[in-house]
Amino acid sequence: MLAFDAPRPDLDYKARWAAFGIAEGHNGTIALVRVIKPGKAPYFDLPGGAVDGDEDESQAIVREFGEETGLVVEVGRLVVETSQPFLKSDAQPVRNHGGVYAVTIVGEKPELKVEDDHELVFLDPRDAVVALRHDAHAWAVAAWMRRGG
């Protein structure tokens, strides 16, 4: 597992299992979510998030893609396993542990989208590497590109 960023020594990071997906769209772009929180600068993430309850990483990715984007996906190969501490938008310190997977878009169900502060956008993967909030996500996209998508 690749670890990114050094945790701040004054914070107690809660471990959180999470999984994310890299989904290729049209013309070689990839799906990202642009997250817009009131009073904060927008940021870009790979779709995905916490693994809930008895879910495995694949189930979490399918659920999170639906909730954040309205897209239906199938989970493919593991690109990389990562660990990264960060502050959530509510300032809670967490450390994500888990995989980033290549996923395939198989449909769209707008009724699945429930996260109004997440907007689906498609970027060139090279632009995504620069735009993504988490170094772990940027690394995963770079590794995905190097392996031929």
pLDDT < 50 stretches: none
* Helix-strand makeup class: alpha/beta
N- to C-terminal distance: 20 Å
Radius of gyration: 14 Å
Task: State the helicity in percent bands.
Answer: 10-25%
CATH topology: Nucleoside Triphosphate Pyrophosphohydrolase
- Strand neighbour order, sheet with most strands: 1-6-7-2-5
Strand content: 35-45%
CATH architecture: Alpha-Beta Complex
User: DSSP helix count?
Assistant: 3
Overall geometry comes to globular
Order of helices and strands: EEEEEHEEEHH
- Structure summary, number of beta strands: 8
For this structure, what is the CATH class? Alpha Beta
Q: Count the domains.
A: 1
TL;DR of this structure?
The chain is 21% helix and 42% strand. The protein is α/β, with parallel strands linked by helices. The model has no long low-confidence stretch (mean pLDDT 95).
Give a written overview of the molecule.
- Helix 2 (125-131) runs antiparallel to helix 3.
- The longest helix is centred in the middle third of the chain and has 13 residues, at 57-69.
- This protein has a single domain, classed as Nucleoside Triphosphate Pyrophosphohydrolase.
- The protein has helices spanning 57-69, 125-131, 135-146; strands at residues 2-3, 14-23, 30-35, 43-45, 48-50, 71-87, 93-108, 118-123.
- By secondary structure, the protein is α/β, with parallel strands linked by helices.
- Strand 3 and strand 4 form a beta hairpin.
- 21% of the residues lie in helices and 42% in strands.
- Strands 1-6-7-2-5 form a five-stranded mixed sheet.
- It has three helices and eight strands.
